[in-house]
């Protein structure tokens, strides 16, 4: 086709973008031609490496060709865009995982879709004119084509800064941020490409590399980390507003022009992706959740209208006051079920037994079924879960399953259920317990599973009922590497992050330590608000100070116990539980049981347990959210 030139020259597969008048913007047909070439050359012994370059001086590739996306979307045809993004993302994954060297030459602008083809190879070359950026927030999208992976891997909080401001990176900045590898002046490129074609040896790139210019971004990192250290858009905006600097003022001005929904979702995506479980496929799957909904529920069409079609630069964004509810972010990023992005090499759905289908287990099982897994469930209560077949016993649900998942009230019940299901499970299957139980019970079940030739993972969760429904749980997993690897694809469906904490029991240890901190911190946060009230300090003023100062905490910034202050939380719904005080008491008791067993001194944990026991069992805390400690303290004087 005239927009792209694909051929084999010498030992190299060559892909040259040939529409410089359109800044080499990539169309769907170009994307599919690249995909086909990469798949053919992957199996071709005559091709040793792949080279990407482009005609013209202004751009390697300034992004995707969005005219057709806008035209189809405004006519209510969302499937064209979904197909484009799905197939493009599959090509991005193929390129990132390619078994042969891929050398890309990135002159001028490399943005959006250009990053997806130019910045996922093994040898990424920039020159004196290179300008790399992820500007998608400015048109109501999020950094995609695997861009969230690169932003999540960037130093410090640089990923948030680049994603939210569409900051352009020169050659030194691109290398510092991880979007490029080598600086080579452009007048050398022709000779270097000829060497690569003749030899098929990518090491010539390193031998031609020269020192890049200094990175402006590297010098700004202290300011960037200070300003973008928050966990939400509100946190970052609050911090920027308190900073008296030209950097903060300029950044706030830039962010005032960008889609608040897109910015909030970008922050949440980077937060979910950071960590040892990050892969290109996980990043692309999360990106596709947003882009799948971008036309119908996001700001994408309005962003294109304002920036490209009408060019009035005055988009009517959703949440124009920049106060984006957590529910709106969750809606854009919740799992897609049967519409989820998949990759050809992936296996078909697993056969799963799920035991314990209550407030947490029910939606977790439903999400697995929506993702295409064959789920058979069992619960002592008469329940019905969409997509889940029901068995008449735990053993029947476990029979023939690849993985059996349990979500149960306590360790005693876990041991009883494990004794029932382990004999019914085939050797090599995995038992994954997502309950919060004592460490000793987790280790005992692990030993029983190992004796039967089974894998075991203790994987308690954080995120509450909302996280279970939205597929945003965090899993703290203990068990062998093989056991964790078998369960990890399911964690990716049910949650946003899974951390392998160590051997069996380590997941439970991590959960009870985390929740001991949470329980203690919530008490301190509630006490502080009650004290502020008695001192005549306005609650909103207190939040504005503490949320951007050394008193910053999750219980203040993300789950504020004061109604009408901070992001929406159970406090705004009369303390209807997101995480019940009864469950906090259970977890604090588990922490103190473990502390006694390990001979650990935990006086704050002990005091927190005693306070929650009094609140739940001696007062009116039963059935309320654990943040309802605040009205308790409001009513009390100093004793």
From TrEMBL:
Any Gene Ontology biological process: L-valine catabolic process
Catalytic reaction equation(s): 3-hydroxy-2-methylpropanoate + NAD(+) = 2-methyl-3-oxopropanoate + NADH + H(+); a (3S)-3-hydroxyacyl-CoA + NAD(+) = a 3-oxoacyl-CoA + NADH + H(+)
Family statement drawn from the similarity comment of this UniProt entry: Belongs to the HIBADH-related family.
Entry annotated with the keyword Transport: no
SUPFAM superfamilies referenced in this protein's UniProt entry, alphabetically: 6-phosphogluconate dehydrogenase C-terminal domain-like, ClpP/crotonase, NAD(P)-binding Rossmann-fold domains
Keywords: Branched-chain amino acid catabolism, NAD, Oxidoreductase
Name of the protein this chain belongs to: 3-hydroxyisobutyrate dehydrogenase
GO molecular function annotation: (3S)-3-hydroxyacyl-CoA dehydrogenase (NAD+) activity; 3-hydroxyisobutyrate dehydrogenase activity; NAD binding; NADP binding
Pathway the protein takes part in: Amino-acid degradation; L-valine degradation
Enoyl-CoA hydratase/isomerase domain residues: 13-331
Assigned EC number: 1.1.1.31
Domain 6-phosphogluconate dehydrogenase NADP-binding positions: 351-502
Organism: Falsiruegeria litorea R37
Record-linked CDD domains: crotonase-like (cd06558)
Gene expressing this chain: mmsB
Domain 3-hydroxyisobutyrate dehydrogenase-like NAD-binding stretches: 505-630
InterPro entries: 3-OH-isobutyrate_DH-rel_CS, 6-PGluconate_DH-like_C_sf, 6PGD_dom2, 6PGDH_NADP-bd, ClpP/crotonase-like_dom_sf, ECH_dom, HIBADH, HIBADH-like_NADP-bd
